[in-house]
Amino acid sequence: MNLVKEDFIKAFSLYEEKALQHRRFNHADILPLLQGNEISKQFIVEEIGQSVEDRSIFRLKYGQGPIKILLWSQMHGDEPTATMALFDLFNFFNGETDGFDNFRKEIAEKLTLYFIPMLNPDGAERYQRRTAMDVDMNRDARAVATVEGALLKAQAMLLKPDFAFNLHNQNNYYNIPGAATPVTISLLAPAYDYARCVNTVRADAMRVIVGINKILQEFIPNAVAKYDDEHTPRGFGDNFQKWGASTILIESGAYAGDPEKLEVRKYNFIALLHAFQEIASGSYLVHDIADYNAIPFNDEKLHDVLIRNLSIEKNGKRMLVDVAIRQNEKTVAGDYYVEGVIEDIGDLQDFYGYTDIDVEGLQFTPSKMYTDKIFSLADLTSSFVESLLKQGYGAIVVSDNLAQTRLHSFPIQVLSGANFQAESCLRLGGSADFFIGSEKEVQYAVINGYLINLTQSIDNKSKNVVK
């Protein structure tokens, strides 16, 4: 059975794991999925080790075919998208009587799939890249000093896979060269030496990637790129390639309007299922390596907000500048808030923004703090916040005695004390809190890095914190 576009859509819609709908899940969230009776219908689930903080690390086995494939996800704890996709795949391979039975039968007969989801559960607990020992596990393939890295290498030596899939997330700021399009998926056949030589092992990985790219182009045209192929002697992908497994790196990138990566996880699911199909059938061998080389490399010229042609003044001198803003995530109690900062100022014609606006004819105005009244959080309403913004107030003070960090979604800075320092002018690295308008009225507010059009209705979707 050869799956086509409509089949992939149907398969994902049937088997998306509904328990994982937010990217900041942890080890405790996946344990019930791994230990329930449903998973063992078609999988052999085995605990193969524990993390530094004694969290179980599992390997799942599907099929009994001669071609062995090893996949691992979340070796960086804050890169969870592929883990979600793996659980979607587990559901799919446990399915039946849905029109895909012949496909599953062929995969099980020709392949043996080994999955290690959430290789770094301690990092996932903190939503951080590194392990509990503050080591980047993906720079530990040579020294294998980490418990988790040693475990992965031991699996490589034990299983001797023919193919390996190294599953990661990349940042949201990669774009297709020359375009504002974010890279949704980037792919790589890692180099096993500094010369970036291509032997049979690496060539087969390249051919599999060509097949993945072809199916993804049907879903996300012109949103696939290659990751940097500089050789990293400490990296696991480079070393798996050296150890004889045709290794494919999949980096989950960004899709506009998809903060929880639910669309991106779907494309992981499709990419992996299609790769299994091509490896099982051997159809990847017909692909031309020239098509791999034609995939563009990531560029990195995206920002969360890009404001063009803003008039600013200092010391009586005025100029037009472009302003780039980043919304940096800060983890707190299983959730996060944003810290908006000025990332760049100047000529940014060659850069792009998820929110990208030309404000020529308008000027920078500093934000003000509203001091006429101290509020309770319970007093705040969207309409009142909107009225303050239209008067140029970007901060208020609340009286609440907050015993812990308090997240909120109001598009205004909420302070627990009078500690708001308004920037009198744009400052590189400074907070992104200011207004844009004419001498008569403000038209836009920039609050904590979010651009708010004051001539339209305002939503409360900000990820802010009481400071």
Question: What percentage of residues falls in helices of 4 or more residues?
Answer: 25-40%
Neighbour order of strands in the largest sheet? 1-2-4-3-5-8-6-7
Main pleated-sheet profile = 8 strands, mixed
- Mean pLDDT figure: 95
Annotation, overall tally of beta strands: 21
Percentage of residues in DSSP E strands: 25-35%
Low-confidence stretches: none
Our measurement of the CA-to-CA distance between the termini, rounded to an integer number of angstroms, reads: 57 Å
What Rg is obtained from the alpha carbons, in whole angstroms? Answer: 25 Å
Structural class: alpha/beta
Structural shape? elongated
Task: Provide a count of the helices.
Answer: 11
Characterise this structure:
With 467 residues, the chain is α/β, with parallel strands linked by helices. The protein has 11 helices and 21 strands. It has helices at 5-15, 27-35, 81-93, 101-110, 121-126, 147-159, 200-219, 236-242, 262-281, 289-293, 382-390, and strands at 44-50, 56-62, 67-73, 111-116, 163-169, 185-188, 224-226, 246-252, 302-314, 317-332, 335-346, 352-358, 363-366, 368-369, 393-397, 407-408, 413-415, 434-437, 442-447, 450-453, 464-465. Strands 1-2-4-3-5-8-6-7 form an 8-stranded mixed β-sheet, sandwiched between helices. Strands 11-10-9-12 form a 4-stranded mixed β-sheet, with no helix packed on it. A hairpin with a 2-residue loop joins strand 9 (302-314) and strand 10 (317-332). The longest helix is centred in the middle third of the chain and has 20 residues, at 200-219. The chain is elongated and about 75 Å long. The N and C termini lie far apart (57 Å). The mean pLDDT is 95.
